Amino acid sequence: MPAATCALCHFSGFGGAGTTHDVGDRLTWYLFSSISERRPAWQDNLARMQTVCLECHNKTFIQDFYADADKATAAVNVFIQQSNDIQKSLNSRAC
Q1: pLDDT, tens digit (0-9, with 9 covering 90-100), for 39-84
Q2: How far apart are CA 33 and CA 1, in angstroms?
Q3: How many CB atoms lie within 10 A of CB 12?
Q4: Largest Cα–Cα separation, the chain
Q5: Is the pTM here over 0.85, yes or no?
Q6: How far apart are the first and last CA of the chain?
Q7: Residue 28, exposed/middle/buried by CB under 10 A (0-12, 13-18, 19+)?
Q8: Which terminus of the chain has fewer CB atoms gathered within 10 Å of its CB, N or C?
Q9: Mapping DSSP to helix (H, G, I), strand (E, B) and coil, where does residue 38 land?
């Protein structure tokens, strides 16, 4: 591959992080549900993932990337909650 794949950063031992088959091992959010929540050990996951990121990117890039990703996740959570509230209101009127 001419570029990194998902597996290089999220599964391999690249960057000093241990090899894993756990998809969520280096993630800070549960992204599978409509409203995302932080994982219980998200700070540890963040540190492991950023160790991998530092192999190719500088700290400023990584900090900006994570800040933007956290803002995007929070914004999507707000949009989903607003949508849920609208649906709830409409469903209560349907009867």
Answers
A1: 999 999 999 999 999 999 999 999 999 999 999 999 999 999 999 9
A2: 31
A3: 15
A4: 58
A5: no
A6: 56
A7: buried
A8: C
A9: strand
